[in-house]
Amino acid sequence: MSLVAKKIVKSFGQPPNVTIVLKTLSFEIKDGEFVAITGRSGSGKSTLLYSLSTLDPLNSGTLLLEGKDTSRLSEKALHEFRNQNMGFVFQFHYLLPELTCEENVLFPARKTNQHEKFRKQAVKLMDDFEIGHIRNKLSGQISGGERQRVAIARALIMKPKYLFADEPTGNLDSTSSEKVLKIFEQVNRTLKTTILMVTHDQGYANRAKRRIGLKDGNLEFDKKRS
Predict the structure, then answer these.
(1) Confidence of residue 114 (pLDDT cuts 50, 70, 90)
(2) CA distance 48 to 214
(3) Are 195 and 186 in contact (CB under 8 A)?
(4) Segment 7-14 long-range contacts (CB within 8 Å, at least 24 positions apart)
(5) Would you give the DSSP letter of residue 223?
(6) CA–CA separation, 105 and 125 (whole Å)
(7) Helical H runs in the chain?
(8) SS3 at position 159
(9) How many alpha carbons fall within 13 Å on the CB side of residue 19?
(10) Residue 58 and residue 80: Cα distance in Å, rounded?
């Protein structure tokens, strides 16, 4: 058991102007699952992703990570847990333009002065993702698809247990999107990384082993691939 949500609620605003985005959702995500979170715009997909990753605090309900109630952890403890166990991929790559691609991949390790320890891992990831040839280039010198693969390598450099991805193919063409999906499938299969991916694309959602569908903040369906 890796992640358990029990009647979680997330709202924004202050009374009387409160908008409830997530409405008492409950489910469990086990180690090694690849889950796609789907739904129309405004259904709460990204809010759910950020809430499950502890980037956004809940208003009520319980979120258990590794059996720990996240509401009982200090901000410092949560920050350390995210750094050690979570990787994030967003629709925009957020690469640092002044760093080379390899330096961007190593950036999470640099924050704890472990970049030399992880340099071989960075080279391997970039080779695996077919971007080894751009190691010494700046982000402004490469394509959008290459930037997103650099961002994925950066998210995986610390070998996280969880990978949270918010519309990771949203700004990519079909060829680059396919490469990103294949990377996710490979990482899930070989490293057993638990992946939660928000997507509006039903074709990509169907590639996941499980789909959680939201509608107006409610759980519309929760289906495993047969």
Answers:
(1) confident
(2) 9
(3) no
(4) 7/60, 7/61, 7/62, 8/51, 8/58, 8/60, 8/61, 8/62, 8/63, 9/58, 9/59, 9/60, 9/61, 10/44, 10/47, 10/48, 10/51, 10/56, 10/58, 10/59, 11/59
(5) E
(6) 9
(7) 45-52, 75-85, 101-105, 107-110, 119-128, 144-156, 174-191, 202-205
(8) coil
(9) 9
(10) 19
The percentage of residues in the chain with a pLDDT greater than 70, rounded to a whole number, is 100
Number of Cβ atoms within 10 Å of the Cβ of 15? 5
Strands 194-198 and 34-38: parallel
CB within 8 Å of 153: residues ≥ 6 apart: 105, 122, 125, 126, 129, 131
Q: Are 168 and 89 in contact (CB under 8 A)?
A: yes
Q: Give the pTM.
A: 0.92
Name 165's bridge partners. 89, 197
Task: Tell me if 30 sits within 8 A of 81, measured CB to CB.
Answer: no
Q: Are 122 and 102 in contact (CB under 8 A)?
A: yes
Residue type for 30, please?
Answer: K
* Identity of residue 106: L
Q: Length of the chain, please?
A: 226
**Phi and psi based region of residue 216 (left: phi greater than 0; alpha: psi -120 to 50; beta: remaining):** left
CA distances from 13 to 17, 19, 21 (A): 6, 6, 11
Contact indicator for 54, 66 with CB cutoff of 8 Å: no
pLDDT digits (tens, 9 = 90+) for 12-62: 988 888 999 999 999 999 999 999 999 999 899 999 999 999 999 999 999
